[in-house]
Amino acid sequence: MRVIGITGGIGSGKTTVVNMFKSYGxxxxxxxxxxxxxxxxxxAVINKVKLLLGDDAYVKIDGVEQPNRKFIASKVFNDKELxxxxxxxxxxxxxxxxxxxxxxxxxxxxxxxxxxxxxxxGDSICDSVVLITAPRSVRVQRVMxxxxxxxxxxxxxxxxxxxxxxKLNKAEFVLPNKDIEQTKRFVCYLxxxxxxx
Length: 197
What we know:
Mean pLDDT: 93
Strand content: 15-25%
Radius of gyration: 17 Å
Largest sheet: 5 strands, parallel
Helix content: 40-55%
Low-confidence stretches: none
Strand order of the largest sheet: 2-5-1-6-7
Structural class: alpha/beta
Order of helices and strands: EHEHHEEHHEEHHHEH
Shape: globular
Distance between the termini: 13 Å
């Protein structure tokens, strides 16, 4: 199975595009979802995160220990070194899950979706990469509405990702995602291309 990476800056609309590919029956591995599961369930990861960020990185809800996402975000999005260390804990665990997932698939191609695909070196396990793009102002508005955060908080998150230009120079496919109907057409064409080439 060919592995097609799919990425884009925060607010570019990756989830919308991924769901369009899913409607064509394309197998999808969502790295961020797997990372959240690992952060909540993998005891070795939990122990390392506590060592890195302190016990406040987790809270008990109804007797069950859960990641304190707001606390974790407040620590790492303002400290590039801390973010790098957190990623060193989580990314190898995600990679192991991904390898198991690939072994279980039977399709022409599958997609590996990751917000920080290039930053984490995830593109090295992909045969090619699709970059989802959208104007910066649109991306900021989407994230503010989705996450109920300020413009400053969105920009702080953006600063921890590669610029769109840097990603454009590496991606094999670019999929603009501003107009939903146009995006649907792009996904349809790209799915046909990937199935037949």
